[in-house]
Amino acid sequence: MPSNNTPPLQIDQVHKTYRQGNSTVHALDGVNLTVQPGEFVAIMGASGSGKSTLLHAMAGLIQVDAGQVSIAGQDLSKLNDAALTKFRRKNLGIVFQAYNLIPALTAEENIRLPANETADLDDRVEHLLERLEMNERRSHRPMALSGGEQQRIAIARALVCDPAILLADEPTGSLDSATGTSICRLLRNLVDEERRSIVVVTHEPHVAMWADRVVVMKDGTDLTEFKTDGIRDPQTVASRYQQSLGAEAVH
Ligand SMILES: Nc1ncnc2c1ncn2[C@@H]1O[C@H](COP(=O)(O)OP(=O)(O)OP(=O)(O)O)[C@@H](O)[C@H]1O
């Protein structure tokens, strides 16, 4: 876990365009975002507003056309491919809606996958299995796990290298609402108890309500943002979100 106060994530004036036939789509059009250590940020926005493109830019999975993406103070554009791969493995944890576990490996083997064999790896894996309440399921393969259990293993795998930031793309999108809530509570606890830094992309107010801050995207820009003030109420978040889109205030 990062111990200093360098922002785990900083995005300055990021632009990304795509060609679609004869037209150009500004998927990201000057986005700014800073996530502080121990902060939980949700990114909301309509379909096509640029959320996934932004998450992929944060994760170093796509190159941006202009602007800067820094993880734990490192400008990703300054790294060559090999250095970026190594840096991402150590500093970025990523969780997807579809879990993306390796079917042939056990839960524990999946968690260990991104990590190098270091002296403290066994301790970290034990801690994560305990922390995510998956100790008794450690020898099961993904097919023998429920969706919620698979997502817990995916979160443990994302945390095994002790990343500067955890990025999650619709992490509850494949889960029923009770299981989704338990995953959101887990993410919240990781922030409150271990000072993890988390960014979640979601359509869902009942996911975004667990964050400290909601950033609203529209047409490739970070339109506005609001704090949740610890009010874990989806209706409040939904109406603040709608107000943001209606007001179109640029901060
Ligand atoms: N690889 C690509 N090639 C061309 N256009 C793309 C590509 N990826 C995204 N886009 C376009 O960029 C814009 C933003 O897409 P993006 O997937 O980031 O939005 P989103 O907010 O994540 O949407 P959703 O909620 O539906 O996943 C859209 O107009 C999309 O069509």
TrEMBL record:
The record, for PROSITE patterns, names:
ABC_TRANSPORTER_1 (PS00211), ABC_TRANSPORTER_2 (PS50893)
Question: Where in the sequence is the signal peptide annotated?
Answer: none
Concerning CDD domains, the annotation shows: ABC_MJ0796_LolCDE_FtsE
Q: Which family does it belong to?
A: Belongs to the ABC transporter superfamily. Macrolide exporter (TC 3.A.1.122) family.
Which cellular component, as a GO term, is one annotated location? Answer: membrane protein complex
The record's annotation in Pfam families points to: ABC_tran (PF00005)
Tell me the Gene Ontology biological-process terms attached to this UniProt entry.
transmembrane transport
State the protein's name: ABC transporter, ATP-binding protein
Q: Any idea where the ABC transporter domain is? A: 9-244
Listed GO molecular functions? Answer: ATP binding; ATP hydrolysis activity; transmembrane transporter activity
Q: Which domain of life is it from?
A: Bacteria
The UniProt record lists the keyword Nucleotide-binding? yes
Species of origin reads Rhodopirellula baltica (strain DSM 10527 / NCIMB 13988 / SH1)
* Presence of the UniProt keyword Lyase in the record: no
Keyword annotations of the record: ATP-binding, Nucleotide-binding, Transport
